[in-house]
Design a protein that fits this description.
Blueprint: H1 17-27, H2 32-64, H3 69-118, H4 121-126, H5 129-171, H6 173-220, H7 222-227, H8 231-257, H9 259-284, H10 289-330, E1 349-359, E2 365-375, E3 379-383, H11 390-397, E4 405-410, E5 413-414, H12 420-426, E6 427-430, E7 439-440, H13 441-445, H14 457-466, E8 483-484, H15 493-506, E9 511-515, H16 523-534, E10 541-545, H17 549-553, E11 557-562, E12 565-569, H18 572-585
Parallel strand pairs: 3-10, 3-11, 6-9, 9-10
Antiparallel strand pairs: 1-2, 1-4, 4-5, 7-8, 11-12
Helix pairs in contact: 2-3, 2-5, 2-10, 3-5, 5-6, 5-10, 6-8, 6-9, 6-10, 9-10
This protein binds adenosine-5'-diphosphate and magnesium ion.
Length: 586
Amino acid sequence: MNYNLNSQPAREKKVSTISGLKSLLDLVSEEKQNLTIALCSILINSSLNLLGPFLIGYTIDKYIQTKQFHGVLVFAGILLGMYLVALGTSYFHTQLMGGVGQRIILTLRNAIFNKIQELPVAFFNENKAGDLISRVNNDTDKLNQFFSQALMQFIGSIVTMIGAGIFLLVINWKLGLATLIPAVFILIFTRAISPWVKQRNAQNLKSAGSMSAEIQESLTNFKVIIAFNRRDYFRKRFDLANRHNYQTAIGAGLANNIFLPVFGLFSSLAQLTVLSYGIFLIAEGNFTVGLLVSYLSYATNFYNPLRQLATLWTSFQVALAGWDRISQILTLESNLPVAEDQGQTASTAVMAFKDVHFGYPGGKEILHNISFTLESRKTYALVGPTGGGKTTTASIMARLYDPIAGQVLLKGRDIRSYTPAERAEKIGFILQEPFLFTGTIKENILYSNDQYADFSNAQFLEVLQAARLEALLVSFEKGLDTLVSSGGDSLSLGQKQLVAFMRAVLRKPELLILDEATANIDTLTEQLLDLILAQLPEETTLVIIAHRLNTIENADEIFFINSGEVTRAGSFKDAVDKLMHGRRTS
Ligand SMILES: Nc1ncnc2c1ncn2[C@@H]1O[C@H](COP(=O)(O)OP(=O)(O)O)[C@@H](O)[C@H]1O
Ligand SMILES: [Mg+2]
């Protein structure tokens, strides 16, 4: 599955306006009641607005032409009342739809966030956080704008237009037809140009995403940037992204605003037609002044909403472009589904790799035909040169990725048949680059371990004591209550590794993988870690990836990993020889 959202084929051509609208409306299916009420309100509003010109024309012919001013006052009063009611309904449905829009944002942001949480590591390798944030924040807001502001106006405008059109044709069908012809041109023009407008908007949203990604990259790497004095370089990169976004915004603006003048032109043409043809009809005696006034008013009532529709149509195109970007995420499926249990093979091995091949998405093969077994209660060391494939092998053991070919067995069963919860319970993985969450040391040790969640500090210390972990707390000034800020930046790398170590060991996994987990810890503390590991329940299998020779000296078996091949080192001395040889040749 292709997880790179920005390299997916452009969808704007595939999704037609109608099916786009339909999928947008599916979004609001839970808001049926509010939509119906808003719809009724807008219908009342439009009918009142449509009735106005008719009453005005009637008043002119019946009362003004005959100088019965009492009647004029009565009708003026009625019209005022109608307009006030129209105002009320307009306010009402605007409020109602504002709420609908916000609820859509709420649901969509949750849906996208939940979806992202489901997706495998490969997805995060291929997409920049900044672009994803932009989709969650910016693109959902485009939909909110459409629903809270545009949708009801859209419907209201269409109702008013149809109503006005009917009045125009009923009052005088020839004049009506002449008035409506320019609208046909507008329709043809709009149809022809909409895909282009949507594409321009899609480009704009995309460049907003890239800009956001640029900001995110420099923010997460600010230390490197400052240390290497790369500020100018990043300034330039941001400037470039910002400029590109500016250009696409101008492009989108240009596209979005093209409707307005064109619509204006045709609506003026229509007014001109009514006026000249109407006066001609009056001169012939076939038409009254009152009717002409009503008529001009209806023509305005027809073309004004049409002009508004131009703006709304734009809002719709923007919403569609945003919705496309959102659905790209929502339609992704995890390529690490839980497979059906194919049954157990009789084996005492905790883990077995069978002819495993692996390559990162879009890249060349990294691991070639690897087979090995890890027996229960044993300690394994993985050694080899940097870039040889140790971390990759460990990631596959923990099913951060699936192999391209071959099979990984966990306790004799295909690892794909375990649920994420079962897998996390059996396998503990201390990453090469541990990540801590904002909070306290205690919260971080307890991360994804509900067992001791309600324990007081004193109770929890006892638990740590029993696991011999308590001694590790001395390096933290305030012990369990030491605060961790922004991803563990307030701690040293070694301290982070200690927390990650406690986090993993406390869960007592059957298979514990340590990826260079003690690389930044002093030798004394490391000896302490060795003691703790020796204290683990007997059935624990340990996989230690390390480059310090003393850490691997006690291993039962040593695997040598180089250029994506795994070989068994017969003895410690053999491993050292291989390592030295590998270093010399690489
Ligand atoms: N996320 C990734 N995407 C693409 N290639 C990767 C990724 N991670 C590692 N690699 C590549 O896989 C190879 C093995 O890397 P790794 O397993 O991290 O080595 P080691 O842990 O032994 O130093 C390297 O050539 C590296 O460039
Ligand atoms: Mg590594």
